[in-house]
């Protein structure tokens, strides 16, 4: 069996590729930079140039975080993703999964969530599964979890977004990859609605950082800062094109999280707790 995986060099994409390979599948890796084992392709490129021959399934993980403003996000990420899914269908790829986000839901406020929400509808119409992962963690974390790991190691005093009570839902990268693998099987059956991939435990942001620090043998104290001030600081860094610990839009997604994720759709997969 052969699976095409977009965003295969990213944190989630690489974890998915490793899992499929461990199960005996051949992986067609698609990323911005091609090499001997990876085909060069990104969301601004024509998906018809992808070597679709003998591809049985598609897992679409790619997302371009470097597009400024909603118009560019919609043109590249939304329209590019829909074009990819349509091309896969036209090439006979009958099974596949679009990786959305728990931040995508009706009325969400982050641009990332809004873009993912628009793509979800197209993916479901084309017969692909849609998975909304929570905050992904694992042995070698990336993305937002990597930023939280760095913060927990920075010092005894840590600025915290407000009082840190914003609830998060977490999923281990191996559990997520196993779910995607099941959804790509010939016999897979799923409802035509997004599948939330996360342990249903609501973990406040401050508790996530505390648990990370405890694993490192550290004790930290939080310095509450209104999220609006943090947002302003991140936007300033982005405007000046200076390094930031994470994106301002990610902050919006964390503060204004999905108030009622649906944990009842999709195959029966056990998602471990975040310890």
Supply database-style keywords.
275 residues, alpha/beta, 7-stranded parallel beta sheet, two-stranded parallel sheet, 37% helix
Account of the protein in words:
The protein is an alpha/beta fold. The chain has one domain: 3-Layer(aba) Sandwich (Rossmann fold). Helices cover 37% and strands 19% of the residues. It contains 8 helices and 13 strands. The strands form 4 sheets. It has a 7-stranded parallel beta sheet, with helices on both faces. It has a two-stranded parallel ribbon with strand order 7-10. Helix 3 links the parallel strand 5 and strand 6 (129-133). Helix 2 (69-90) packs parallel to helix 3, helix 4 (143-152) crosses helix 6 (205-215) and helix 7 packs antiparallel against helix 8 (248-255). The longest helix is centred in the N-terminal third of the chain and has 22 residues, at 69-90. The protein is globular and about 55 Å long.
Globally, the shape reads: globular
> How many domains make up the coordinates?
1
Q: Based on the structure given, which CATH architecture is correct? A: 3-Layer(aba) Sandwich
DSSP E strands, number: 13
User: Are there runs of 5+ residues with pLDDT below 50, and where?
Assistant: none
The CATH superfamily is known as: NAD(P)-binding Rossmann-like Domain
Classify the helix fraction into a percent range.
25-40%
What is the radius of gyration? 19 Å
> Could you give a short account of the major beta sheet?
7 strands, parallel
CATH class wording: Alpha Beta
Quote the CATH topology.
Answer: Rossmann fold
């Amino acid at each position: 069996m052969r699976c095409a995986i977009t965003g295969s060099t990213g944190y989630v994409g690489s974890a998915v590729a490793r899992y499929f390979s461990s199960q005996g599948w051949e992986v067609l890796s698609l990323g911005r930079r091609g090499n001997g084992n990876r085909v060069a392709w990104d969301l601004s490129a024509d998906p018809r140039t992808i070597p679709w021959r003998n591809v049985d399934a598609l897992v679409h993980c790619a997302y371009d975080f470097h597009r400024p403003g909603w118009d560019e996000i919609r043109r590249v990420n939304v329209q590019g993703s829909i074009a990819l899914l349509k091309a896969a269908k036209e090439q006979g790829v009958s099974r596949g999964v679009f990786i959305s986000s728990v931040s995508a839901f009706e009325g969400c406020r982050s641009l990332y969530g809004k873009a993912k929400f628009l793509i979800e509808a197209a993916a479901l119409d084309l017969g692909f599964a849609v998975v909304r992962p929570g905050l992904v963690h694992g042995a070698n974390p990336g993305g937002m979890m990597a930023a939280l790991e760095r913060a927990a190691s920075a010092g005894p005093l840590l600025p915290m977004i407000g009082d840190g009570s914003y609830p998060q839902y977490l999923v281990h990268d191996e559990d997520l990859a196993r779910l995607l693998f099941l959804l790509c099987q010939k016999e897979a059956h799923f409802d035509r609605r997004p599948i939330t991939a996360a342990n249903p435990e609501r973990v406040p942001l401050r508790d996530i950082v505390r648990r990370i620090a405890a694993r490192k043998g550290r004790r930290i104290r939080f310095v509450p800062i209104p999220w609006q001030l943090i947002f302003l600081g991140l936007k300033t860094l982005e405007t000046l094109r200076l390094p930031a610990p994470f994106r301002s839009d990610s902050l919006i997604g964390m503060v204004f999280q999905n108030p009622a994720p649906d944990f009842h759709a999709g195959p029966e997969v056990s998602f471990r707790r975040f310890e």
